[in-house]
Amino acid sequence: MKKQIALLIMSLIMGASIVFAQEEPQAATEEQKTAVKEILSKYDTKTLTADEAKTIHRALRDAGIRGGRSEDDLLQSVGFDPEVLKKLDPPPSRPGETDGNKEESSGEQKSENKSLPEKKQVKTGGSKYTLEQACSDNAQLKTIAFDGLAYITGDFGFDTFLPPGKVSDYFGFQYMRDIDAKEGGHNTSFLTSIASNILKILNDRQKAELMAAAKEQEADIKKFAEMRFPLIKAFRRNLEGSLPAGSKGLNKAAVLKYSAGLYELDGVIAYKRAEVMGKVINSLTSEQKTAFAKLKFGDSRTWPDIPEQLEKRSMPHNINVAVMTYASEMFAWYAGSIDADTYFCPERHGMYFGGFGMKTAPAMGKQNYSISTALTGDSGEAFLNTLDEKQRKKITEIVELQRKDLAEIVTTRRTISAELRRFQKGEIADKAKVLALSKRYGELDGEMAYFYASAFGEVGKSLTSEQKAKLNALRTINPSEPRGPFLYSDPLKNPVIPNTDFLLK
User: Fold this and answer.
1) Is the Cα torsion angle 199, 205, 211, 214 positive or negative in sign?
2) What does the angle CA 364 – CA 370 – CA 373 come to, to the nearest 5 degrees?
3) Which residues pair with 438 in a beta bridge?
4) CA dihedral 485, 491, 492, 498 (to 10 degrees)
5) Distance of alpha carbon 275 from alpha carbon 177, whole angstroms
6) pLDDT tens-digit profile of 328-367?
7) What is the pLDDT of residues 475-487, one digit of tens each?
């Protein structure tokens, strides 16, 4: 009897499976078609990357669009070939699929997509660094929380600290740093090593081009650092409650407008930098290209240990820093890819809250000093654990508030990067396009910074004495050592900061 019942149940299950397997997908609704068109409109569908394909698939799931036949039919209905996404972001392995099939699929993806060449080949610390990871909710939340800790326990001086390499960062250096096979990307000798090797390969005329660019851009580079000060001051006034009479806090529209102007200047710097580096790249001889090829992107073990090539005493410090930056970025740009150019570290945005000051300032002026890669995540988590439920929600909800901005930042960075890469081909990039996109980038980053500053201000004002003591104990460096404010990483005495009332409503 039991055997008969079991057979009956089995037959019912199998019958149901056949019915579901033969079920036809429902016809696409106009709402679904509109949603798909909106998702695809954010990307250049002719040059999609694997990361973008994954993001599109995730957006389709979030919009309630099922995978499989239903998704295929819907994509086709709006004029998009679903096979493009499948090749870039293959579906999960099905039962019975062999490892050999997976490898073949991976190889197919590589041939179809000009993605980061080192992404699948180079690992650091047993994990992969990708743009998707940098934009993930977990990475963003821990970074935001770390900034919150640095900000609430810090001061204006530390808020101003900014590594020079974070300006006009469209040249793949950050990605090369993060994926280094030697895991030396966050050591103070990393930039010096690759810059020295490149300067040794370049001839006097090529080095003179970089030197001339450094001198020409000296004023703009300094201006960019100084233009950050009013935003930083206004954000801290909001935290400390030092507001104009009748003000309720930050003026969002004014913050976004000011940030747009700041990033337009960043675009000016990036355009000139790409123009000069492109000129030098196009002048490389076959022997120089062979020498470049021996220096592997993402593997500093292949970089010979050689002395610095610039005589520091013969030039101002800021010119030396600029030339070294150009040389290191030129190699990353030449040996990398557009995906490497688009990539950014999670802490790239909203850089007004002392995160770099607490994390990076201790490394300045120290040779062979490695910055902890675990500090951000560990400290960010400890910060969140110190807050009560209401305070913690103020921080965690930023992830959702900034989601749209972050997604547009990725596409904006990619478009700017693609335009700048025209200089490598001996072409001329569209300056007006780069500057317009840079202004938009500034608006997006400004809105994210507004979200951070608003939340940090509310949380900071609501902390108990016990919470403040716990947070101060988490701080890894005394706010007064080294003393700020800073012009990038150099201490600056008595900076002149315009009245910031216009940023406070």
Assistant:
1) negative
2) 110
3) none
4) -20
5) 23
6) 999 999 999 999 999 998 888 989 999 888 877 666 666 6
7) 866 544 667 799 9
